[in-house]
Amino acid sequence: MRACVPLIVAILFSLAWAEGPEEPEPFLELEEEPVEAPAGHLYSAPSSCRDRCHEAFDRHQPCHCDPRCPEFGNCCTDFESLCGHEGFSYSSDAITKEELQSISEKIYRADVNKAQKADIILNSQNRISPSETRDQVDRCPEPLFTYVNEKLFSKPTYAAFINLLNNYQRATGRGEHFSAQQLAEQDVFLREVMRTAVMKELYGFLRHQNRYGSEQEFVDDLKNMWFGLYSRGNEEEDSSGFEHVFSGEIKKGKVTGFHNWIRFYMQEKEGLVDYYSHIYDGPWDSYPDVLAMQFNWDGYYKEVGSAFIGSSPEFEFALYSLCFIARPGKVCQLSLGGYPLAIQTYPWDKSTYGNGKKYIATAYVVSSTQ
């Protein structure tokens, strides 16, 4: 993409970039509703870590389950048995910022399935200021994608990814019910991405960090955290991390999630997405790049939606998984091709799987360099 002009900063939540001027700068990301915590810890006793592993420190609790409680000696008595096996709990096993930047660079270099420059012609057109994102004005008369080499979509991970996109009802409040074929498609996707150098890099790193003891344990956890169903609306199991992040949802009359360029391109090609504008265009001169944009999805508006452009499915899946595992509910600072980039993930706090593990509620890029 073209060189970036100075970025006007406006952000929904306050971030103190204490590490110095080299840190990525946040841009406006108004797309996600705050993930509600269960009132009064409905799923756990306050003196236990059940369903509380890795929650944020709360001084009102009698004991704690955050990753640093061993350092301060204030963990609940069952912290080690319930949370220790997940690998996030011990300061000696903590993943550092430098390690995150190193592994993200390795994943970036390993993405051999990404789009090449000639594979995508992007027409980003009008850039607006963050103060204009609520205007809902279509400032771009032409589509975002002028051309995409669809031969990319015949690659195994792309094909497996695309097969998943139509398995969901986009409106929250409507329960998801998967057929045997749709469940098999989830397994095919996981199998295909695990064959890639990208996911091999990620698994090797996490195993070295004592997060997982075997590849099967890792794959099983990915399936639960990404494809496990939970309820964003009423009592129906109507959502999952994969549906929200990659396919997109409609909640309370607005678009939530929808952070994938392949999904965007395919919906735009069908006339269901109308690209309005963008507020940020990343510094990378090859793919993957990052774009933060405004668009209308078949009658519903997305005020700001960030997405990688030209990345392979396994690349996005790996980075979002890495950040959710290493920095759940926090800003995850990475490095791609020498440029800083930050991803925000949130766990779903109202239900759990396994021994108190959390599902992915959302994951998206929140900042990059100017």
Task: Briefly say what this structure is.
InterPro entries: ENDOU (IPR039787), EndoU-like (IPR037227), EndoU_C (IPR018998), SMB_chordata (IPR020436), Somatomedin_B-like_dom_sf (IPR036024), Somatomedin_B_dom (IPR001212). Residues 45-87 form the SMB domain. The protein has 370 residues and is α+β, with helices and mostly antiparallel strands.
Shape annotation: globular
Query: Percent helix among the residues?
Result: 25-40%
List how many beta strands DSSP finds. Answer: 11
Strand order of the largest sheet: 1-11-10-9
Structural class category: alpha+beta
Largest sheet: 4 strands, antiparallel
Unreliable parts: 1-26, 28-44, 85-92
Oligomerization category of the chains in this entry: single chain
What is the rounded distance between the termini?
A: 13 Å
Output the number of helix runs.
10
Sequence of secondary-structure elements: EHHHEEHHHHHEEHEEEHEEE
Beta content: 15-25%
> How confident overall, as mean pLDDT?
84
The Cα radius of gyration reads 20 Å
Task: Give a structural overview.
The chain is α+β, with helices and mostly antiparallel strands. The protein has ten helices and eleven strands. Helix 3 runs antiparallel to helix 6. The chain is globular. The N terminus is likely disordered.
